[in-house]
Here is the input.
Amino acid sequence: MPDPASSRPNWADDEEFDDPSVLPPQQVINNPDGTKTVITYRFNDNGKKVKTTRKIRTTIVKEHVNPRVAERKEWAKFGAEKGHSRGPDLSTTSVGENITFRPSTNWKTTSKEDNAEESKLKDQLKDKKVTCRICRGDHFTARCPFKDTLPPLDDAAAPGAEESPAADGAGATGAIGGSGGGSYVAPHLRGKKGAGESMPGSGSYKDRDDLATLRVTNVSELAEEGDLRDMFERFGRVTRVFLAKDRDTGRAKGFAFISYVDRSDAARACERMDGFGFKHLILRVEFAKRS
Amino acid sequence: MRPILLQGHERSLTQIKYGHSFWGLEFGDLLFSTAKDHVVCAWYSVNGERVGTYNGHVGALWTVDIDPTTTILATGGADNTIRLWDVRAGKQLKMWEFPTAVKRVEFSEDGTLLLAVTEQRMGHLGTVVVFPITVDVEAEQVDDPSFTITFRESKATVAAWGYLNKYIITGHEDGRVSQYDGKTGELIRDVQAHELDMQITDIDMAPDRTYFITCSKDKTAKILDVNELKVLKTYVTDTPLNTAALTPKKDFIILGGGQEARDVTTTSQRQGKFEARFYHKIFEDEIGRVKGHFGPLNTIAVHPRGVGYASGGEDGYVRVHHFDRQYFDFAYEVEKMKG
Here is the structure.
């Protein structure tokens, strides 16, 4: 005698385990904030099952149109579209990539700069001519009449010129030291000032006196720059408070920098504030290191 | 803005038209496109849905126009015919045959007259013919044109009606712009508006039909007034132009072009200059470009309410754009002061 309860599907026979080739049906969840979550499944090119979760907000825009326009909206389709249902057909209509179009009065000047680089390269290459590596003639190396008889000129000259690359290298780094080089130089090789220093142009930012700057870590997420300023101003004049914040949530990331005018104030603050309890967390304060 | 791509055509686009404005009511809800693949397509401009196709032509199509009440559609093409269609049903109403291809058709402001430009070929001279039209799908249309303008020197490539059907303006292969009487077809005025022997490729009338824009292979576009054919504005670009359009609501113009279709394969997309260029109508400055097409732009049409535009290219795509806020907010400092 079959028990009515046993005819119900067992929880263990969930569709997941039934047949791997069958896709679960599409799920639509109505969220309380008025949005819809649509979960669909499909197989990708590698035969793997892919779950796609889309959150959709439907906005209804009402528009008043002329009755003639409204009437045309209801037209039955004709020609090649005859019998097709309403709504755009994916085979003829698709949506392109987003284009930012911002009209501006100085459009010409901004776009010219883009082309400047390109034209410079072109100018450089304009005077370049084909030279043969073997005889320095006006043809490709492969076409050289002396191809099989002479070794390339560079090879012949190589033993004598061995010293020069090294000397060139030294000269190059020297030139870069004077910031005259055109090519890329790694930051730590720039200038004579040593690590962490960058191009002279940005000096005002980088040369800031780090000697009187404290690094504060283990700052609460809920902290505000104002709170920190209030706390640290007790020890002397604070020139800058920087609290790192998450770009998306706007909450503090957990560390901050405090700059003082006077290093002695900073030292005092460092001593007193290290281990200070702030919003349920114990602050750690130390002098900021140059990185 | 996110353009809508319409892929109803298999060959390069030749002309796009929005449904016209009628007695000051601006519609623009329908979009009609012709291409070299013999089919005319009708679309809803708002979402890019294809309403239908008009099948019957047996040659490449060059031109399309719609009467102001959106009742009758006229098309012309390389099968040497002009055909009238019932817009709603897609049914052919009338066909006129010519000895040569039809390059341009246009309804007059009130929809009662239709002009057509025919090609000069095989000993036949280029002409402009004018037919009276009865704007009714049931009505019988006349068989013969009310008059014909024949060009003995240089053939016309484009033509348009002036205000109140008073004039017919034609653009010619040699860069001239001519003004003909709209009732009799007599030549009134003749101006060498563009460089000599540089073909005029497009003409677009302002909404009130008192001035118009022409563009040419000489890389310029010009605004001329209908009465005197005086050049009011000149826009200089760096590429041969195929199409020009005036935008309502904002004082802009849109130009489209790119190098010759036959040279496209030898140059990169970037050098090809396949962008829609926006110029300020009054200050003659370029204010921006819109990219997207893979080939030269053959035709541009602006929504009669100025809320968007559609461009058709040699690449076979129609791209329908709806303008963003930035487009409407943009104004020169002087313009802001005025308001």
